[in-house]
Predict the structure.
Amino acid sequence: MKKLVLLIILGSSLTTYAQDPEDGLRLSWFNPSGTSRSNALGGAMGSLGGDLSSNHINPAGLGLYKSSEFLLTPKFLVQNNKFDYRGTNNTSNNSKSNFGSIGIVLAEGKKVNNWTSTAFSVTFNQIADFSNRVSFNGQNNYSSLSEKYLEELIAYQADTNSALSDYIFGSSLAYRTYLIDTTANASGAITGYQSLVPISSGVKQNYDAVTTGSYNELAFGWGGNMEDKLYLGASFIVPMINYSKSLYYSETDATNNANNDFAGFSINETFNSKGWGIGAKFGAIYKPESFLRVGFSLHTPQLISFRDLLSVDMNTNTEKYAGTLSASSDDLNNGYPGQREYTVATPLKTIFSTSYFFASPSKPTQPLGFISADVEWVNYAATRFYSNTYDDESTNYYSLLNSTIKEIYKNNFNIKIGSEIKLDANWMIRAGTAYYGTPYADEALKAARMSISGGIGYRTNRHFIDFTVIKSTNRDVVFPYRLNDKANTFANMTGNQLIFNIGYGIRFTK
C-alpha cells in the first residue's frame, strides 16, 4: 500500500488543537437523509421538487408548491458491522430510534408579476446519524500505538521535562506510565527514548469505540415558479453538529511472558464535539417539456465553528520493571478536559439532475409516474481547518493538516436514481438506489457506500403518509493509529444498516 504522508504530530501533543483527517471526512462523506419520500427515491430529488427535502437538496423545488404543508418524519435504525483486522474477524451491533426531519412550507398560489407561485419553508433535518460501534481486535507483530508516542518525542527532540508534561494526550501519559522509557549510554547519560512493547513477538490489540450524535441542518428556504417552466430557489443553512466518542484501546503481550517487562497497556478516551455554522444552497429547475425536468443546485462550503473537549486515561503494566502505573490528561491540565476551538470549511457540492415523467397510453395527460436521477460532485480533499486563535503554532499546524487532507482524499461522483409509480388516485409505490464513491486517493483503501430503498405512499387532498425501508452497505477502513515511518495498519469494515422511515404530513391553506 502507498504510504500516506501524514502530520508529524497527529493529535496527542498539543493541548489546544489536535484534529486528524477523519474529523473532516465525517462532515462530508455519508448517506444524506431526508423525508420518507426522498429516502425511498434514493435521494434523487434534485429536479423533482414538491417535497420538503428540496430545502436541503435543491431549493428551487419549493417553487412547485402551490399549497402549504407540514411534515414530520421519524425513523428507526438497526446496524451491524463486520471487521477484518490483520486476519481476525469481528462484529458489532447497535440499534436506535431517532428524529428524522420536521418542517413547514407556506405557499402562495396567486400570480404576482412573472411569478406564478412562491413558497417559503423552514425545516430541521438530521442529514447524518453518527451513532455507531466500531469494535475489532487482532494480533500485530509489525507495529504498536506506542510508536506514535515515540515518534512524537523524537520529532520534537523532547527532553525529560517536556516528556513529563508537554504532551498531555499521549506521550506524557506514556512516559509517566513507563510505556515509553529513556535509553542511556554506558556512562548513564540519557540518549533517547524506547517503547517497552515487544513488537517483534507480537501484541494483541483491541479497539472498541462507541460514537453518538448527529449532523443536523436548520434551513430557511425560498422558491419561486415562473410560468410553470422555470423554478428558482435559495436556502440559508444553519448546520448544527454534536458528536461524542468513547474509545477503549489496549495492547497486551501475546506471549504471556512474565519477564519481558510488558504485560499490556490500555487507553480510555472521551471526546465530545459541538459545532454550528452557516452555509447556503442555490438551485434551478427547468421544464423544457411537460414530461421532462432538468435541475442544478450548488451547495456552498459550510463554515462550522467547533468546540471540543478531550480526556485520556492510560494504564500500563510493566510487570517487575515498574509494576502498574496510571496517568490522566485531566491531572496534567488542572483537573479539566483539554479544550480546543477551530473552524471547518466543508467541501463545495454540485448536483446535476433530471426527471422523466410518463403517462398511461390511455390517459396521456395524467402522469402515471416518473424516473429521476441525480449526479453529485464532491471534492472531499477541499475540507479545510482553521485556527480560532491565530497564533503561529496553531496556524502552522492547521496548514499542515490541510495539506495532509489534500493528499489523502480526492473528489468523486455520487449517483442516485429513483422512481415512483401511481397505483391509483391515492396509492403509489417507490424505489431507489444511491452509490457514493470512495473519498480516498489511495487505491488500496477500498471504500464505498450504497443503498437500496423502497416504499409506499398514500395521498388524500389533505393528508398523506409514507413508509420507507432502506438497506444500506458501507465499506470503509478504520485506522486504530497512524505512524510516519511505517505503513499504517487498518481494519476493513463492512457496515450494514436497515432503516425504517415513516412520514406524516398535512396540507392546508394560509
In short: Residues 1-17 have pLDDT under 50 and may be disordered. The chain has one domain: 28-140+198-508. The two ends are 61 Å apart (CA to CA).
